[in-house]
Fold this protein.
Amino acid sequence: MSILIDDRTRLLVQGLGRDGAFHAKLMKEYGTRVVAGVHPGRGGSMYEGFPVFDTAAEAVEKTGADCSVLFVPASAAGDAILEAAHAGIELVVAITEGIPVSEMSRVVAEIETMDVRLVGPNCPGLISPGKAKVGIMPGDIFDRGGVGVVSRSGTLTYEVVRSLSKAGMGQSTAVGMGGDPVGGMKFVDYLELFEEDPDTEAVVLVGEIGGSDEEDASRFVAESMSKPVAGFIVGRTAPPGKRMGHAGAIISGGSGTAEAKVAALEAAGIPVADVIDELPDLLRKRTGG
Amino acid sequence: MSILIDDRTRLLVQGLGRDGAFHAKLMKEYGTRVVAGVHPGRGGSMYEGFPVFDTAAEAVEKTGADCSVLFVPASAAGDAILEAAHAGIELVVAITEGIPVSEMSRVVAEIETMDVRLVGPNCPGLISPGKAKVGIMPGDIFDRGGVGVVSRSGTLTYEVVRSLSKAGMGQSTAVGMGGDPVGGMKFVDYLELFEEDPDTEAVVLVGEIGGSDEEDASRFVAESMSKPVAGFIVGRTAPPGKRMGHAGAIISGGSGTAEAKVAALEAAGIPVADVIDELPDLLRKRTGG
Amino acid sequence: MKLEEFQAKALFRQYGLPVPEGLVATRVEEAVSAAERLGLPVVVKAQVKAGGRGKAGGVKLVRTVEECREAASGILGMTIKGYPVERVLVDPAQSIGSEFYVGITTDRRKRRPVLMTSASGGVDIEEVARSTPERIFFHTIDPRYGLRSFEARGMAFRLFDSKEQVLACARIMVDLWRCFDGCDASLAEINPLALLTDGSLVALDAKIVLDDNALYRHPDFEELRLPTDEERKEQEAKRMGLSYVRLDGSVGCMVNGAGLAMATMDLIKHLGGTPANFLDIGGSSSPEKVVGAMKLLMRDSNVRSVFVNVFGGITRCDDVARGLVEALGSMGDPPPMVVRLTGTNEREGVRILSETGISATSDMTEGARRAIGLAEAGASGGAS
Amino acid sequence: MKLEEFQAKALFRQYGLPVPEGLVATRVEEAVSAAERLGLPVVVKAQVKAGGRGKAGGVKLVRTVEECREAASGILGMTIKGYPVERVLVDPAQSIGSEFYVGITTDRRKRRPVLMTSASGGVDIEEVARSTPERIFFHTIDPRYGLRSFEARGMAFRLFDSKEQVLACARIMVDLWRCFDGCDASLAEINPLALLTDGSLVALDAKIVLDDNALYRHPDFEELRLPTDEERKEQEAKRMGLSYVRLDGSVGCMVNGAGLAMATMDLIKHLGGTPANFLDIGGSSSPEKVVGAMKLLMRDSNVRSVFVNVFGGITRCDDVARGLVEALGSMGDPPPMVVRLTGTNEREGVRILSETGISATSDMTEGARRAIGLAEAGASGGAS
């Protein structure tokens, strides 16, 4: 098992431009069941052995795709997320960065009323090692195992995973959830899934400054999780004042700084690593392994 | 019993201008439990023995109102319907006429996702004789009884009711649902309620040209109603060509004319009166009374 | 409010829709110089608010200045379905490959806007809808979100194969939605949307009907009003809070409520008479309104008798009675009249009328029958 | 993109929000003539993108031409929180009764815009939020529907009692929403919203931050860009697809990914060094981008060593390596550098670097440690 994606996932790739085509190929090579592509105007053609359609609706109808990954430009990405959702896709993974917040908040308000999950945008995607990769991460750094990883960052996730793998700790699923102000699933959503997943034994949470998602996660871990969790927070040296006027400060209350996040995690009994390479040891102590 | 309103209905009057104030008084005199008014800027005052509030939310919270009737100008009516719906009102009756269709279609799209019913707009409201009146109809022409009346028209409803009352046929509930292109409940919704209401023995449906609501009602009566229904359709002499370009014709198909509606009703076994005064006899024949 | 083609095209242009750059002319020489400016050949098109102008000879393709002069002078003198042609639109002629249909209106059943398209555009789209409905595609628009690109693309793929045309058509659909929504239209229609031989798409004709209830949001639309004589009367009525449509009969009707007004007309017809008009004096009626309504009726020389049918609800019978008394007092030669008054403040209304010697019946059928009788008597009197 | 007060007020005005009709001046005499045109007394306000300008003496009420000249010349020479004041806004002085706060931003937790208001407006609104949070009211906006009148009224009733002020304030809130939404802002804020002694409401100050990701939808906003020196550098970086923020340390960082960049800075600090900057070279990196990034780093004279930390995913290690080789080749005196390369095409990247004599480590901590050592050596070398 794993969360969200596995070897039964039927993947649709939306947008087969330079990046989309490149990563569609890599995902397929990793073993992901890429069943279709969508690229308006290229319907009827084939790419890397899978059929390409003009619309997501047709792709879903003809191939039974249940998950999609987006490589479309920022100006068209909100539309593409909704196209996938309305076509019946259950999990949409939006790699695209640079989508306006106003656009995302409308998209999110709509998909909240639908039966669809969103990972991202502005994220590397997710991987269930040995089963499926839906995103742009380098597959070879991941090992199959029992640690769930969820992170707001991209390359930082790789760094963490590499450290875990080196220490012999494989991953059930690793997710780069994206760092945009408004996006899809949050820490709590992933933690809930990891808690339920029989193959996940422990979780690493990688947070960063801004927002209050780590604080919410801390509460959830304290109240509802039985599995051990370790944390890592970046941004301790980030320059202050890169926030937005009074309103940002008012809405975030005291939260948002690295210190506040570390404090929240620790108060919830989650050990926080100072440097990435401490994470395997912290987990080992918690799991008694 | 009756449908939608009865002597337990707790009514809120939105808009206490000239018409709102006049009819609030008449509704109260009829015996309706008018528990509150809303008129921004007049919060804290009293009118005809009930308290006036600045917002619907406060009125509902303080008085437990569950039904509201709108006498606000067309430009503010969409907002007022939503205010009532978001305040937790279960039945909103919009008397206001002249609301733009674009506004109503947005309002309707939103309230469809909520637990609220809308009567109107551009309607006289509804009455459950002897129990409650929520609207502007002259109360004294209605008699308590077993005939449900539902009509797209205002004064025509009174005419029909008068004819029924004169023939000794009282009404369980009489509704003027309004004739705007986009509105709240439709014939089918009312027929469904009348079918379920133990006190309603028969139903009179008063339709008019335009739309396809009568055609939908005919299908519903044929398929799902056990109670006798009689119909009346106005607009046989209406000038043709008062429709909108090709699109109106395409979307309505053949329906929309008085002839098509009469044919649809008769095909569903619903006798249709040529003149209003025939209605009591048609009902009597159907009920065997 | 119906717009004429050239007005609709101007709005289309504002929303980025591709329309030919035509010129409007009210005189023949103006049309000729427009043709010269645009370059021949051009199409000269009658600007009227009625359909079927093509079949009526109101649209002409001309290749020379002489042809243009001839066509313009012919068309500017025409009357199409009762509408005199006061303006022509001179559009550059296009090299048309095929014709499509794209329109947005409100689907009353779904209570939402609906986009309709067909690869069988052109004048006979209604016939297509009747005989081969499967050739028309519908897409319901959620007004909260508007027409999205992916939805428009999905519809455009049903009409076109080439990627360029699909994307151009999808763009047109989205812009048509923006126009429909931005103008608070009841209808926005392109028929035909032409695929030219060079592969581009152009809105050859344009139809927009504005929602009268939303005009208050668009004060600038007031200048788009180019009323016909008939519309001018309806409009004047509207300003008084009246809704008036003239017909051909002899019994003038004054009724409160549209439904009851239609029922009254139906009843007159049913009893063998002919209604002269639809006239709804609406809800809260003041004496002034009744006076205005009466004057409006009397302008129609066909009217031989007047049937006033009022069921008081929000309308108060005493207001109506006072208005009638005032109106009759101010008229030199009032027509024969039958008044039926019932409902709110009925007693007071009847009292006011009886004081002035006007008798009122409470029965609608009886009232209608008497009005028909008076009209017939008046007609034979008028013929003598 | 942060706007200055006078720009935000101009946008406010477009959306119908009540703002004083002030004038902008870049020279002292301009400020004086602005004051004369507006009529004294006026307020002279430093236009800078930093808060706290009032406390820094950047806002002055003046009653005479002499006072105005003095204030303007003082303020136009100031530097507030590192920002030199290049412009002042001259606003007519108002007779203020009390001050309120109204702002809209995005609530990340609810993933929707949020309207915030308080009767305790003015400079210390953040202190109010901290110490008496119950004095701040929040209303989450559904972006599909926008802020509706009834919602705005509900919020306005919490600030005002008089019907006129409630309706005026509700109108302001709705217009502020339209401005926030129409401009794709991250923040639109009025602080203070002043209740004048004549009972009217005016936005005395205005703050707008635009969403950089949405600027492509607003080409006309480009002219609102009045960058400070620091912003100019960040912007230039952005044009190259780089995200750069300068700090005060000595170890220059070049990293792919914002998270890893922050982790790298944290690590340098943790190991006793000081990061010179945040620099994210982003996803798909080309050699040109790496050259540009390197040049950007070298402009900062504090930089004593450079730590390149790349974990290849979408970024390919060979691209980064080629860029580094090219950048170093084009530089006369390259700084001491430590390169850490791993991930996609790692082997090829390492090969390219080693061919040019640059050695790469695969361990981040080790790399950071060596970069700190080089910086310290460089600093003592530089001091000699």
Notes: Chain A touches chain D through 66 residues (CB under 8 Å). The domain at 10-119 of chain A is CATH 3.40.50.720 (Rossmann fold).
